[in-house]
Each structure stands twice: as C-alpha cells, then as structure tokens.
C-alpha cells in the first residue's frame, strides 16, 4: 500500500517510515506542500499522512484543495494541536482520522488500516481467487483454509496482482506500487519477487498462478 507522508520533522519521518516499511507500506516522504503536490501528480497513493504546520503553507488548506479536486485518498492528520474546535475543523476539512503527536507507530499503523478498511466500503473485504483468500487489511493469506505466511515484498506483489486478477499488470505499474521514490531497487528486483511468490503459491497448492507476458508484465490466472 503506497503511502505519502508529508512532514518536515526528519526524526519523526525516519522512524515512522521504517515502521511502515516493515508493515508492508511503500512510503514516499516529502517535506513541503509543493513536494506533496508533485508526488501526487506522478504517483497513485492508497493513504495520506499529513502534518498541518509545513514550511510553505497549511496542510489543511492543501487537503481541502485535494478534496475539491475529487481526490478521495484516506487522510490521517498528525498534529500537536490539542484543541477540540481545531480538531473538528480538521475533520470538516477532509481528514478521515486525527492522531496527536508524539505518535505511537503501532497505533498509527492500526489507524491507517482502520481508515483503509472503511474506504473499501464493503462488509467483506476479503479477496478470493481460486482456493486463495487474502485479507488486505490484516495482511493474511490462506490457501484452502490453511494459513500461508508470505514475506512482505512478495505479499505486496500478490495483493496488486489479486486486485487485477485475470488482467495483464504492466511491469511499470507493479514497480510504481511496490517501491517508494527513495527505495534502492536492483534491475531484477521484481523478477526475484515474482520467482519467490511463485514458489509460495506452488508449495502451498494454490490454484492461482502467475504467467509472464513477455515484454509487458504479468497476469494472475487460476487453474
């Protein structure tokens, strides 16, 4: 799940970025609203983390502008503002949740998953394809009712392929959703991840299989 984190406090963004990465989020960290707008113009995000007091403006004004333009990305505001009227203004401005600084990373991740769950807008968000079940919020996979443990990177690949099961997913699209701007990615990183994911599926007896479409990308099919 690709995340945009807008905050100019280096220590906080570094710590939160590591924690989110360990939990399966690809995080782009920017320091200003200008950088945030540029990031939005060239990437698609599943969740937004936003500080209000930024060097080049007010984060809430920027969020209001996003909403007016039709962007529905779930947004969590992080702030040291502990005033009821101001918190109400934050929600009225388009925030889906609010977390008071200093943040606990475990609580932040739980709240991110909660707003993502609400954004799915369905009673049962479980993705089913063949004999494979995937819970995108709990990050849990099972095959024929048996739990399957999948490494973080391969789980991200599986999620993206499942969301487009039966359709070709271009290589570039997979890479855009798996890696943040700052990730150091080797030329064959995606191929290695696909190879490992195929191993997980094969050894577990999963009916879905990954087919390579040479020169284009990959497609998840089912026996």
From TrEMBL:
Which interval of the chain is the signal sequence? none
**Keyword terms, alphabetized:** DNA-binding
Q: Which residues form a coiled coil?
A: none
Q: Which SUPFAM superfamilies match?
A: C-terminal effector domain of the bipartite response regulators (SSF46894), CheY-like (SSF52172)
**Which terms in the GO cellular component ontology are assigned?**
cytosol; protein-DNA complex
**InterPro entries per UniProt:** CheY-like_superfamily (IPR011006), OmpR/PhoB-type_DNA-bd (IPR001867), Sig_transdc_resp-reg_C-effctor (IPR016032), Sig_transdc_resp-reg_receiver (IPR001789), WalR-like (IPR039420), WH-like_DNA-bd_sf (IPR036388)
GO biological process annotations for this chain's record? regulation of DNA-templated transcription
Residue ranges annotated for the OmpR/PhoB-type domain, each copy included: 124-222
Domain Response regulatory: from-to ranges: 2-116
Which residue spans does the record list as DNA-binding?
124-222
The answer to whether the entry has keyword DNA-binding is yes
Query: What's one GO MF term for it?
Result: phosphorelay response regulator activity
Q: Which PANTHER family match?
A: REGULATOR OF RPOS, TRANSCRIPTIONAL REGULATORY PROTEIN CUTR
Query: What is the name listed in the Swiss-Prot or TrEMBL entry for this protein?
Result: Putative transcriptional regulatory protein y4xI
